[in-house]
Protein backbone atom coordinates (compact mmCIF):
# COMPACT_ATOMS: atom_id res chain seq x y z
CA UNK A 1 0.00 0.00 0.00
CA UNK A 2 1.26 3.49 -0.85
CA UNK A 3 -0.05 6.62 0.87
CA UNK A 4 0.71 10.31 0.64
CA UNK A 5 0.32 12.78 3.49
CA UNK A 6 1.36 16.34 4.24
CA UNK A 7 3.21 16.35 7.53
CA UNK A 8 6.53 16.60 9.35
CA UNK A 9 8.26 13.22 8.91
CA UNK A 10 9.66 13.34 12.46
CA UNK A 11 6.09 12.84 13.73
CA UNK A 12 5.38 9.64 11.82
CA UNK A 13 5.11 6.27 13.62
CA UNK A 14 6.44 3.71 11.18
CA UNK A 15 9.18 1.09 11.38
CA UNK A 16 11.61 3.35 9.48
CA UNK A 17 11.65 6.94 8.31
CA UNK A 18 14.07 7.92 5.56
CA UNK A 19 16.36 10.94 5.88
CA UNK A 20 17.55 13.01 2.91
CA UNK A 21 21.10 13.25 4.24
CA UNK A 22 24.44 14.31 2.78
CA UNK A 23 27.47 12.07 2.39
CA UNK A 24 29.06 13.20 5.68
CA UNK A 25 26.01 11.90 7.64
CA UNK A 26 26.76 14.68 10.13
CA UNK A 27 23.41 16.45 9.78
CA UNK A 28 22.48 19.61 7.93
CA UNK A 29 19.43 21.72 7.17
CA UNK A 30 15.99 20.75 5.84
CA UNK A 31 14.58 17.36 6.77
CA UNK A 32 18.05 16.19 7.90
CA UNK A 33 18.26 18.95 10.49
CA UNK A 34 14.70 18.28 11.67
CA UNK A 35 15.38 14.54 12.14
CA UNK A 36 18.61 15.05 14.10
CA UNK A 37 17.03 17.78 16.24
CA UNK A 38 13.96 15.75 17.13
CA UNK A 39 15.71 12.37 17.41
CA UNK A 40 18.56 13.54 19.60
CA UNK A 41 22.24 12.71 19.78
CA UNK A 42 21.88 8.92 19.54
CA UNK A 43 21.34 9.26 15.77
CA UNK A 44 24.56 11.24 15.29
CA UNK A 45 26.49 8.74 17.45
CA UNK A 46 25.36 5.88 15.19
CA UNK A 47 26.25 7.96 12.11
CA UNK A 48 29.77 8.57 13.45
CA UNK A 49 30.27 4.81 13.93
CA UNK A 50 29.15 4.15 10.36
CA UNK A 51 31.50 6.79 8.97
CA UNK A 52 34.39 5.36 11.03
CA UNK A 53 33.64 1.87 9.65
CA UNK A 54 32.94 2.56 5.99
CA UNK A 55 33.79 6.17 5.21
CA UNK A 56 31.30 8.57 3.68
CA UNK A 57 27.91 7.50 2.34
CA UNK A 58 27.94 7.89 -1.44
CA UNK A 59 25.15 9.40 -3.51
CA UNK A 60 22.38 6.83 -4.04
CA UNK A 61 23.47 4.66 -1.11
CA UNK A 62 21.72 4.19 2.24
CA UNK A 63 22.62 3.32 5.84
CA UNK A 64 20.47 2.63 8.91
CA UNK A 65 20.63 3.97 12.48
CA UNK A 66 18.53 4.15 15.59
CA UNK A 67 15.71 6.70 15.51
CA UNK A 68 16.60 7.92 19.00
CA UNK A 69 13.64 9.77 20.53
CA UNK A 70 11.53 9.69 17.36
CA UNK A 71 8.38 7.57 17.21
CA UNK A 72 9.88 5.48 14.37
CA UNK A 73 12.20 2.55 15.19
CA UNK A 74 14.91 3.36 12.66
CA UNK A 75 16.19 6.16 10.47
CA UNK A 76 17.45 5.15 7.04
CA UNK A 77 19.82 7.85 5.78
CA UNK A 78 20.19 8.13 2.04
CA UNK A 79 22.14 10.68 0.01
CA UNK A 80 20.20 12.14 -2.89
CA UNK A 81 21.85 13.57 -6.00
CA UNK A 82 22.40 17.30 -6.41
CA UNK A 83 20.51 18.38 -9.57
CA UNK A 84 23.00 19.50 -12.17
CA UNK A 85 20.89 19.78 -15.29
CA UNK A 86 19.88 16.12 -15.57
CA UNK A 87 22.76 14.64 -17.56
CA UNK A 88 24.87 13.52 -14.61
CA UNK A 89 22.92 10.35 -13.78
CA UNK A 90 20.77 12.30 -11.32
CA UNK A 91 17.63 10.30 -12.18
CA UNK A 92 19.31 6.91 -11.76
CA UNK A 93 20.89 8.04 -8.50
CA UNK A 94 17.55 9.23 -7.14
CA UNK A 95 15.98 5.86 -8.03
CA UNK A 96 18.92 4.16 -6.25
CA UNK A 97 18.09 6.14 -3.09
CA UNK A 98 14.56 4.72 -3.01
CA UNK A 99 15.66 1.17 -3.95
CA UNK A 100 18.58 0.99 -1.50
CA UNK A 101 16.48 2.46 1.33
CA UNK A 102 13.77 -0.15 0.79
CA UNK A 103 16.34 -2.96 0.55
CA UNK A 104 17.77 -1.91 3.89
CA UNK A 105 14.26 -1.74 5.33
CA UNK A 106 13.59 -5.34 4.23
CA UNK A 107 16.92 -6.52 5.67
CA UNK A 108 15.93 -4.98 9.02
CA UNK A 109 12.41 -6.47 9.04
CA UNK A 110 10.69 -3.13 8.59
CA UNK A 111 7.15 -3.40 7.27
CA UNK A 112 6.32 0.30 7.09
CA UNK A 113 8.54 3.04 5.68
CA UNK A 114 8.06 6.82 5.32
CA UNK A 115 9.96 8.85 2.70
CA UNK A 116 10.45 12.60 2.35
CA UNK A 117 10.74 14.04 -1.17
CA UNK A 118 14.46 13.30 -1.47
CA UNK A 119 16.62 15.94 -3.26
CA UNK A 120 13.72 18.36 -3.86
CA UNK A 121 14.97 20.97 -1.37
CA UNK A 122 18.57 22.15 -1.07
CA UNK A 123 19.62 19.70 -3.83
CA UNK A 124 17.23 21.40 -6.34
CA UNK A 125 15.89 18.30 -8.13
CA UNK A 126 12.80 19.29 -10.19
CA UNK A 127 9.82 18.25 -8.09
CA UNK A 128 7.78 16.81 -10.97
CA UNK A 129 10.57 14.52 -12.18
CA UNK A 130 11.41 13.55 -8.60
CA UNK A 131 7.77 12.59 -7.97
CA UNK A 132 7.71 10.38 -11.09
CA UNK A 133 10.88 8.59 -10.01
CA UNK A 134 9.75 8.21 -6.39
CA UNK A 135 6.38 6.66 -7.25
CA UNK A 136 7.68 4.46 -10.08
CA UNK A 137 10.63 3.11 -8.10
CA UNK A 138 8.65 2.44 -4.93
CA UNK A 139 5.73 0.79 -6.72
CA UNK A 140 8.06 -1.46 -8.73
CA UNK A 141 9.89 -2.47 -5.56
CA UNK A 142 6.65 -3.25 -3.69
CA UNK A 143 5.41 -5.41 -6.55
CA UNK A 144 8.46 -7.64 -6.06
CA UNK A 145 8.81 -7.54 -2.25
CA UNK A 146 5.72 -8.23 -0.19
CA UNK A 147 7.69 -7.88 3.08
CA UNK A 148 6.99 -4.14 2.99
CA UNK A 149 3.32 -3.53 3.72
CA UNK A 150 3.16 0.24 3.67
CA UNK A 151 5.10 3.16 2.20
CA UNK A 152 4.09 6.71 3.10
CA UNK A 153 5.30 9.69 1.06
CA UNK A 154 5.49 12.49 3.61
CA UNK A 155 5.33 15.83 1.80
CA UNK A 156 6.19 19.09 3.48
CA UNK A 157 4.59 21.36 0.91
CA UNK A 158 1.44 21.38 -1.21
CA UNK A 159 3.31 21.17 -4.50
CA UNK A 160 5.03 17.87 -3.68
CA UNK A 161 1.79 16.44 -2.31
CA UNK A 162 -0.09 17.31 -5.51
CA UNK A 163 2.70 15.93 -7.73
CA UNK A 164 2.98 12.64 -5.82
CA UNK A 165 -0.80 12.21 -5.86
CA UNK A 166 -0.81 12.82 -9.61
CA UNK A 167 1.75 10.04 -10.10
CA UNK A 168 -0.09 7.67 -7.75
CA UNK A 169 -3.27 8.15 -9.78
CA UNK A 170 -1.45 6.80 -12.85
CA UNK A 171 -0.66 3.42 -11.28
N1 LIG B 1 9.41 16.48 7.08
C1 LIG B 1 9.21 16.12 5.79
N2 LIG B 1 9.76 16.75 4.75
C2 LIG B 1 10.57 17.81 5.01
C3 LIG B 1 10.83 18.26 6.32
C4 LIG B 1 10.21 17.54 7.39
N3 LIG B 1 10.41 17.88 8.68
N4 LIG B 1 11.67 19.33 6.25
C5 LIG B 1 11.91 19.56 4.95
N5 LIG B 1 11.23 18.65 4.19
P1 LIG B 1 15.98 18.94 1.88
P2 LIG B 1 17.64 17.59 -0.14
C6 LIG B 1 11.20 18.50 2.73
O1 LIG B 1 16.55 20.25 1.54
O2 LIG B 1 17.10 18.44 -1.22
C7 LIG B 1 20.35 18.98 4.01
O3 LIG B 1 21.05 20.08 4.50
C8 LIG B 1 11.56 19.70 1.88
O4 LIG B 1 10.45 20.57 1.74
O5 LIG B 1 15.76 18.59 3.32
O6 LIG B 1 17.75 16.11 -0.38
C9 LIG B 1 21.20 17.71 3.98
O7 LIG B 1 22.14 17.67 5.03
C10 LIG B 1 11.92 19.03 0.55
O8 LIG B 1 10.76 18.77 -0.23
O9 LIG B 1 16.89 17.71 1.28
C11 LIG B 1 21.86 17.80 2.64
O10 LIG B 1 23.03 18.58 2.70
C12 LIG B 1 12.48 17.67 0.99
O11 LIG B 1 12.16 17.53 2.37
C13 LIG B 1 20.83 18.46 1.77
O12 LIG B 1 20.03 19.24 2.65
C14 LIG B 1 13.98 17.56 0.80
O13 LIG B 1 14.61 18.80 1.09
C15 LIG B 1 19.95 17.46 1.07
O14 LIG B 1 19.09 18.15 0.20
TrEMBL record:
Domain Macro: 1-171
InterPro entries: Macro_dom, Macro_dom-like
CDD domains: Macro_OAADPr_deacetylase
Pfam families referenced in this protein's UniProt entry, alphabetically: Macro
UniProt-listed PANTHER family: GANGLIOSIDE INDUCED DIFFERENTIATION ASSOCIATED PROTEIN 2-RELATED (PTHR11106), MACRO DOMAIN-CONTAINING PROTEIN (PTHR11106:SF27)
Record-given protein name: O-acetyl-ADP-ribose deacetylase
Lineage: Bacteria, Pseudomonadati, Bacteroidota, Flavobacteriia, Flavobacteriales
Amino acid sequence: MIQVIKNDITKISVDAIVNAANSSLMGGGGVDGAIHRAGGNAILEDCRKIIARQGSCKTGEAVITTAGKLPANYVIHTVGPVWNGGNKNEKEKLADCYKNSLKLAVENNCKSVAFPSISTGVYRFPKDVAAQIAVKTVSEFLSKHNEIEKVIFVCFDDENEILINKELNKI
